[in-house]
Amino acid sequence: MARAVTTQRKTINTIFAWAVGLLIFFPILWTILTSFKTEATAIADPPVFLFFDWTLENYAVVQERSNYMRFLWNSVIIAGGSTILGVIIAVPAAWSMAFVPSKRTKDILLWMLSTKMLPAVGVLYPIYLLFIKLGILDTRVGLVVVMMLINLPIIVWMLYTYFKEIPGEILEAARMDGASLREEIIHVLTPMAVPGIASTILLNFILAWNEAFWTLNLTAAKAAPLTAFIASYSSPEGLFYAKLSAASVMAIAPILVMGWFSQKQLVRGLTFGAVK
Amino acid sequence: MKLKNALVAVSALVSVAATAAYAETLTIATVNNGDMIRMQGLTDDFTEKTGHEVEWVTLEENVLRQRVTQDIATQGGQFDIMTIGMYEAPIWASNDWLVALDDLSEDYDADDILPAMRDGLSYEGTLYAAPFYGESSMIMYRTDLMEAAGLEMPDAPTWDFVKEAAIAMTDKDNEIYGVCLRGKAGWGENMAFLTAMSNSFGARWFDEDWNAQFDSEAWANTLTFYLDLMEQAGPPGASTNGFNENLALFQQGKCGMWIDATVAASFVTNPDDSTVADKVDFALAPDMGKGPRGNWLWAWALAIPAGTEKEGAAKEFIEWATSKEYIELVAENEGWANVPPGARTSLYENENYKDIPFAQMTLDSINSANPLQPTVDPVPYQGVQFVAIPEFAGIGTQVGQEFSAALAGQQTAEEALEKAQALTTDEMEAAGY
């Protein structure tokens, strides 16, 4: 009897989880479906779900109009570069906070996180003027630096949490065997924290890929990533929803595929510290 | 002979070298709409003629406005040509942010630009942005519903007729609404419509001393009429409807009349997208017999930011993109229905273009708007559906939110006007007017 109740509960839980999952996924599914509709079908009332004349025309138009590969390459460089640079800076920072904490470590961590609470537009003009002075407006280098700085608090926090789980005695043993600080971090700490670093890299790559405020404001023609590619298909005077959807699908497709193949690491990254 | 050949070879080499040295790459910021996208597709023609390459930055209208304003105000220099509207042109020109377009070539024929467009894009008599295409607003209406209502639309109707017709055409049980109007808050959304409408009711934003005028009887009449019309004959949820939402409603046969941008005419008469394409006709925006009609005037124009190092090439591009030859190029490639409208007088004298059903009404609508004297009473500002001062974008959007809240039934017309008067007065005082 008790077993039957458990099964029933499991079924309910499963149905509930699927329902929530579908609800969250629905906007993306709708975008994908709309990208295969004509503009007239895209705004049909009542909305058409599956039974319509599927067309690839929107993808052909988007492909013809925009240099997709250039936007894609910029996204890869900006998201990849900023994440790698961020990790290189964050590993030693997280190490010092995790293994040689001071009285102020907690305060520093909180202060770092507090920078994320400032609305980005609040520092737009200082950063814009700085970029003009430095001559790095509309360059991938500029975007890599800005994206790295934006995501650095999250990277430090994630790595700090992972490092805290590693017993300090192991590092002490390495030191007693004569390892230098550099060797300790590169040869002992980093290999042990590889799963944590991998999930940090994945999560921050996705965050940098999707970032649309700085990438739209600091780029023009040369360094514009896929967020600018999507923005170029939005129009308040004209119903171009099907083309906008096709552009959106093309922009999220690489990250969707990457996310699918690295689900486990992502889930771990998102739930770090939740379960000990 | 040898000397002659050598001279020819040298001069050819010099010519090639000079062209290569002169060839520039222009970065152009533009909006995402059909005419601009068509221009991007035809850029090869410009490159072939001049050797200059073009890099496009296409953005959604509001993002574009913020990006180009930010860039020009900080002298970022990211763009060699910017697509700007009638609102920005006189303000930016007064700040010395734009290069004057007073030395365009004779072949360009600047006098052919429609006078209303030229006035709206000039500052102190000098042109600062060349119109790529222009628009006004007009009534698009369903001929079948009008006939069924037993009414006939005049070419130049009054607001009273529009109200009568809208109520007669409304059949809420079958989801047919007599009139669809903008309700979404924003200076370029509901306030574009309501400001133009208020002109025809005898209202104005400011008197000659920059005092806000929302406490006037004319504004009370405007807003009360609009709210009453929408309550009786408008679609549900109209306070969130902008151009696209109303376009979708009209194309699906749910609006009897739609008063909006003339550019919409090509959408609603396109049988690929519109279910009512063969049942649409056009009329001038309504009036109240006071002079101004309730239509606006707008142009997307090309301007050169002051300080660009590529001014010469940028002017060449502007001459190419806004020329008579460009219009013929579009007609040749895409047909006359797709040429950029509303910029040049000669287009409306072209026999091929006269066959386009909405061409004459578009021209009449543009000509009936006067950006230099938009209201019944004198005003200290330029602009038909906006006030060409930097503060207007912020104030217009706040007032738009109050009027949109009134349309949503969250407050009365009196309350909305009181708040509009107070906030406009505060903002203008703070700005030093």
What does this 3D model show about the protein?
The complex is a heterodimer of chains A (276) and B (433). In chain A, helix 3 packs across helix 13 (241-261), helix 4 crosses helix 10 (194-210) and helix 10 (194-210) crosses helix 14 (263-270). The model of chain A has no long low-confidence stretch (mean pLDDT 89). Chain A is 73% helix and 0% strand. Chain A has helices at 2-34, 39-42, 57-65, 68-99, 105-114, 124-134, 140-164, 168-176, 181-192, 194-210, 214-217, 226-231, 241-261, 263-270. By secondary structure, chain A is mainly α. Chain B is α/β, with parallel strands linked by helices. Chain B is 45% helix and 13% strand. Chain B contains 19 helices and ten strands. In chain B, the strands form two sheets. In chain B, strands 1, 2, 3, 6, 7, 8, 9 and 10 form an eight-stranded mixed sheet that branches. A two-stranded antiparallel ribbon of chain B has the order 4-5. In chain B, helix 18 packs antiparallel against helix 19. The N and C termini of chain B lie far apart (76 Å). Mean pLDDT of chain B is 92; it is low at 15-20. Chains A and B meet through helix 6 of A and strand 1, helix 2, strand 2, helix 4 and helix 11 of B. Chain A: Residues 72-262 form the ABC transmembrane type-1 domain. Chain A: Belongs to the binding-protein-dependent transport system permease family. Chain A: It is a multi-pass membrane protein. Chain A: It is found in: Cell membrane.
